[in-house]
Specification:
homotrimer; 438 residues; Aminopeptidase
Chain lengths: 438, 438, 438
């Protein structure tokens, strides 16, 4: 079934989508993902139940700009046993226990030696931190600080059954062909293990956006990327460089499930159309929000917005990475993401894309004075309800500013009205032949 | 007598002008004006006692852009009689009682039928509303809501002795030839019956501006339009299209007699010279004021600022149309407009035009370092009074910024001084040959 | 010894410099300076103990733009004696007692006649004002108002042993040749008698800036001017017009010793590099400060910023001239200037020049995505101290914004970091061949 974008709302129940997103997060939660390896493959296979994405495998050692695709890491088991042979730390209970990219170990050692490989959060003694050791040959365990304090002197058996071999970097890609070759890019990172907000929430939002947009008749083509952070976007940009110029709008989506307000980090350009569209949606929503300027760290927008690409891609979050204490800890769990928040992030994302799809420039074909709206049934002189008054005012704004310089979002911003009545007024005026597309 | 604009203040007593304006309002108040008809003609004849304006008659049916000049409406009498034959509503007592452009009626009817043609203001039960039925064949009466509630069942005689026939749209125009063909346009609407602020106040201000400017030696040519709202400006723009490019500055004047603060609605351009001039006057006045952005509804600026014309024309009001409860009711009467407020609106308008007339760009002929002002008698080193200090500082500002990029208003704004000392300093420097016009 | 600018801090103790500045002020304080004459010569000779400046003598009568170099004024003695022959006012006790440029007098007169030549400050009855009578043939005495009130009727002997003859206007100039011919101009005025803040403080700051910069390896050439106010800068600009185009940055330095906060008056250009550099230094200092727009009166920036020159020269002060009651009175004395404030002004000036010296534009040589900093030893993934975190973030900012459009100061401003870590990051990236100069 092919829907017009504007009909999507009638067919969507955002809370149901929130529930579907949460269900996917729940299924993905136990998987031990890392920069490479089977955890990402398993993740992409689960996503394929919703959208038929392509899975790409890029061999270790491939040069991608200044970087090299790393060896593939996989882990089967890991634990620490005490002198009594009891497993006091067990990878099977939480995949956060093992520092990602740890090399294999099978060794007995003293507590003193072991401690050099243990990471904890003294300020949050019950939480397990999440750590990685990409690009360095080492190993480590992450523990609740409380547990570390309870460890007594003695000999410990340390076991990590991992492998770090030539293999592949795996990523998923889903493409929808619209009327135009110009593209909207939606990107999320897939390299975190059992962490829900960062970034199973982003994976879920991207998946369901892809799923619902695939039913629509679209102006732009859409590309959805499910990639490991940093190396994934670098790899994709390098291998797809000829496509990059098609990208006219985009979003990196991360941390979109917590109960904080929306934070939108603008593209490096700062006033790209996507920046305006998201700002407009947030400004006309009932909720508080933050819009912040681009900075060159954080998620993959740092690669998309590197100076040679400088793409019009912003980053949609709720609470910013690093700004919630649960960030990169075992507390970023299934309780930390909320169904209404997931749904809200989804809806706002969709509303911004709705604007992008419809944000065109028109020319008033009767630009000398106003046209007579009354004889076209568009003018109601007396005692009309507020909503119709807004509709009438929207007609006047569209006519007055359709001079080829203002797009519909510009008109909405100047009028103080939201995008939707402006776009409806435009449709009415097009039907009366008072406008043409610029 | 030909005065220089700068000498006008000496010859003007603004309170006297306020009184003259009020006197004209009083004379015009009883006349039943509408979009067309004899009410406008009578109004223009009264104005001719002050300025010899030309009266133009445009035949019904004339095509003006997307519109057609309507039939001419005239009304002689109208009433509603109750069963006892008593006139309970009488046009002769208030011309607001009849909906403007009502077609003739002479009919008996039940209260139920009559009520479908009656308009009241339930929130202001003593006031009579003002309503029109342009461009639709209908009739109606406007009543105090209190009176409506008192009507008892029974048969009513309804009589409207009006005519809606081919005739003319009537407007007045007054032109003053200045040194340049470039024009300032001042426009007011003349189509409202017994309503004082909206817009007998605008008519009065325009009339006396025309009268007093006609005695002056002027840089710009001035055109004053007395037109019915909307259709009048559309008609004038259509019939005078070749003249439009001469209009360099302009004001629509309406609702300038109430006791509220001045509201200035900027031109669509937003930073036209007239916008700057009015802002400057308001900013250096002692009173509060509002400056608001252009919006494409309201008075005739919506036509002058339609995209193909986009003229540098703003709208001067006190309280904005629709923002005072008396708007379009019988309470917008002779008590509602105040002589000092009329005078204040007049003076501020004149001050802005003074700036426009004198706002030129000059070139400092001694641009390397300061010229020695002392040897020209322009520098006073010690213990001078504050006013002379300001005069001296004004000299330095004019010299420093007369680089061909700044006009005098720019210099006034940058210096924080008001326009007048900047212009006086300019005169002194011109006399010393330290400046020339750019 | 030739130091790099960045090594200067290690060799400088700012408090010691404050003490040296104060010592120079103390030596210069007793000298009776004026627009011309031996007072200025003596002043320049004392400065020569620190920097080998050139002393220029411009003959009276020389035409300099619209001005003429005035006669040279010198004074040997002056007093007022009462009837008893007692010196009640004595130039030797305070050179402020005599209005600068007073013509010779030797005459007995009544109190009434004398009073016409006496200036006091009624609001500050204990203070002696400072007054001048340049460009007018007159004479006068400045007294504490209290003393004026105590004068009784009788005959007074008035004696001024001064001369006003053809001679010279004297100024000092010190030039340091840097790598480039492009220049930084530092200018102070030398024409005030026993007044410390205005402007022995400026003379001292300029002297020690010249002294310390002379030991450094510099990008720009530096020119230091010690000139009488107004006529001095006009003379210099006129006689050195071909050099003017080399001046790329500059500061007028005055009133830099009082205990008020720094005030920086921007150049006429308003967004010159020096304006940005000083703003950045002030914004990242711990102290309050004011940044004000250019105005065409005050110190010699009014000449440097006259429209034909419009040089990128601002004015560094602490409390603005005229904004402290001690201004131009005997209370602007050795107690009024403070060593830590002199030192602070010096340091901030130096910091701004440090920025100017290092503020270049670079090109990221790896502009497609981020380069891999880890393999170059520039990336530290885990648990690094805050300072190193800032250093790492600085690297990312420099890489992201080194697109040929942003200089290092732009990058510092956009990042919110101070200039120094941005410049250090740039050095690291240059060493790794990740940047080149634009």
């Amino acid at each position: 079934m092919t829907l017009r974008f504007e009909d999507l709302n009638k067919h969507l129940n955002s809370l149901e989508i929130g529930q579907e997103m949460f269900q996917l997060i729940k299924e993905l939660y136990p998987i031990c993902r890392s920069m490479t390896g089977n955890g990402i493959r398993d993740t992409l296979h689960l996503i394929q139940r919703h959208v038929s994405l392509d899975i790409h495998e890029v061999p270790s050692g491939t040069n991608v700009f200044d970087w090299t695709v790393p060896k593939e890491w996989n882990i089967r088991d890991a634990y620490i046993k005490d002198e009594k042979g009891e497993k006091i730390v067990d990878f099977k209970k939480s995949n956060l226990h093992v520092v990602s990219y740890s090399v294999p170990v099978n060794k007995k050692m003293s507590l003193t030696e072991l401690k050099q490989h243990i990471f904890t959060l003294p300020d949050h003694p019950d939480w397990i931190p999440y750590r990685t050791a990409y690009y360095e040959e080492s190993w480590g365990f992450c523990l609740a600080h409380k547990q570390l304090l309870e460890l007594t002197d003695g000999e410990y058996e340390v076991y990590i059954d991992s492998s770090l071999n030539n293999g592949h970097l795996t990523y998923g890609e889903y493409y929808i062909r619209g009327d135009e070759m110009d593209e909207v890019l939606i990107s999320c990172h897939t390299c975190h293990p059992s962490l829900c907000n960062d970034n199973l929430s982003g994976i879920a939002l991207t998946t369901f956006l892809a799923k619902y947009l695939s039913h629509l008749s679209l102006r732009y083509s859409y590309r959805f990327l499910f990639i490991p952070a940093t190396i994934g976007s670098i790899t994709w940009l390098c291998l797809n460089e000829p496509l990059v110029s098609r990208i006219k709008h985009g979003l990196v989506v991360a941390c979109v499930g917590d109960s904080g307000n929306i934070t939108y980090k603008k593209s490096r350009q700062g006033s790209a159309e996507i920046d305006g569209a998201i700002s407009h949606v947030l400004q006309h929503s009932q909720s508080s929000y933050s819009i912040i300027d681009f900075y060159p760290y954080g998620y993959d927008d740092r690669q998309y917005c590197s100076p040679a690409f400088n793409l019009p891609i912003g980053c949609l979050m709720r609470t910013q990475h690093g700004h919630f204490p649960e960030y990169h800890t075992s507390e970023d769990n299934l309780e930390f993401v909320k169904i209404p928040c997931l749904a809200d992030s989804f809806t706002k994302c969709l509303s911004a894309l709705y604007i992008i799809e419809n944000n065109k420039r028109y020319i008033n074909l009767n630009p000398k004075c106003e046209p007579q709206l009354g004889k076209r049934g568009l003018y109601h002189s007396m005692g009309i309800p507020r909503q119709d008054m807004d509709a009438q005012i929207a007609l006047l704004w569209v006519l007055n500013l359709s001079d080829g310089k203002h797009n519909l979002l510009d008109i909405a911003e100047k009028s103080g009205l939201s995008f939707y009545p402006i776009q409806k007024a435009t449709d009415s005026l097009l039907r009366c032949n008072l406008l043409k597309e610029a």
